[in-house]
Amino acid sequence: MIRRPYLSGLAPLMNEFVLSRKAADAWSVTYSDNLHNFDKYCFDNFPKQSELADGMLAWCNPRDNENGNSCRVRTTCVWNFVDYLRELGKTTIRSKRQKYVKDLSFAPHLFTDEELDQFFLECDRVCLAKCERNKTLSARLSALEIPVFFRLLRSSGLRTCEARWLNISDIDFTTGVVSVHKSKGGGQHRIVLHQSMFGLLNRYIESLYRLMPESALLFPDAKGHPHDPRWESYNFRDIWSNVSSEPARAYDFRHLYATQNIEAMEGIGCEMNGELMFLARSMGHSSPAMTCAYFHYIPVLHDKVERCSGDSFRNLLQNQSCHGEN
């Protein structure tokens, strides 16, 4: 069911595309908003055009106020729509996706132990205070979910979207293995929870069922839907602002997880290849080369590996960027 109707002559094709993506569990609020914006552009400028035309895709051109990867994020859904029509033989137009920009205006924040301690103390304090001020289901859910959500990011290296989309059934409560079925780009992977996180999730789910006994999601909103990215961003900033003035994002927990695991590999010799492969798979990287991008943030280990492998390592890093995976 399409909740918001499309208005342009491409509406029937867009409806088919959306239903196919939802059937593949590969749809999101961001995709929906951007496709609706493209639809409005087509409705305003090509009101009678019922087939995709090159001129429509001027909407995908980079704008003067866009920087970093914002153009790619805005247009990805439209190019996926173009690919979908091409596969069905309904257009001959090829997608022209914007490339990721490697050097963005930010670098991931690598939290210190002191900052992490302060963050989670503040996290618990803020959530309890909010719950005391507001007894609505939404407030009570947030007070329960936020401390567990951020601790899960910290301990697992999950992408923030992966954590938001997790179902309770994705967790094996015998082994502590989490199967990530819905991820960026549709990839699937598994992680093994630390024993302390496994115990926390067990207690958390018992409390969640008391608030929302029929919830399938691990972190539902008050309507039983996944939270959107604004939920995690707002709550992270609200907590982090009381800890530090340094720029940071919830996604930086993933960077920290990667760098700490790579740092732990120092001194293990030839076994490092296997360890790197395990780390790449647990983080959902399609290739260990993507994981190697994190070596940029570990100067001592970066220099040591570069001395041993020379140009091959430098060439590998030049073609990878861990920024781009967000």
SSE blueprint and pairings:
Layout: H1 11-23, H2 29-45, H3 70-87, H4 113-133, H5 137-156, H6 160-165, E1 177-180, E2 189-192, H7 195-211, H8 229-240, H9 252-263, H10 272-282, H11 288-292, H12 299-309, H13 311-318
Antiparallel strand pairs: 1-2
Explained architecture:
The chain has 326 residues and is mainly α. The chain has 3 domains: 11-87; 113-240, Intergrase catalytic core (hpI Integrase, Chain A, Orthogonal Bundle), CATH 1.10.443.10; 253-325, no CATH class. 52% of the residues lie in helices and 2% in strands. The chain has 13 helices and 2 strands. The protein has a two-stranded antiparallel ribbon with strand order 1-2. A hairpin with an 8-residue loop joins strand 1 and strand 2 (189-192). Helix 2 crosses helix 3 (70-87) and helix 5 packs antiparallel against helix 7 (195-211). The longest helix is centred in the middle third of the chain and has 21 residues, at 113-133. The radius of gyration is 22 Å and the shape is globular. The two termini are 29 Å apart.
CATH topology label of the largest domain: hpI Integrase, Chain A
Domain module tally: 3
The Rg value, from CA coordinates, equals: 22 Å
Largest sheet data? 2 strands, antiparallel
Mean pLDDT, rounded to whole units?
83
CATH superfamily of the largest domain: Intergrase catalytic core
- Biggest sheet strand order reads 1-2
The rounded distance between the terminal residues' Cα atoms is 29 Å
Q: Percent range for helical residues? A: 40-55%
Q: Shape, please?
A: globular
Q: Regarding quaternary structure, how should these chains be classified?
A: single chain
Class from secondary-structure proportions: mainly alpha
Unreliable residue runs: 316-321
Strand percentage:
under 5%
CATH hierarchy, class of the largest domain:
Mainly Alpha
Q: What CATH architecture label of the largest domain applies?
A: Orthogonal Bundle
Number of strands: 2
Number of continuous helical runs: 13
Instruction: Name the helix and strand elements from N-terminus to C-terminus, one letter apiece.
Output: HHHHHHEEHHHHHHH
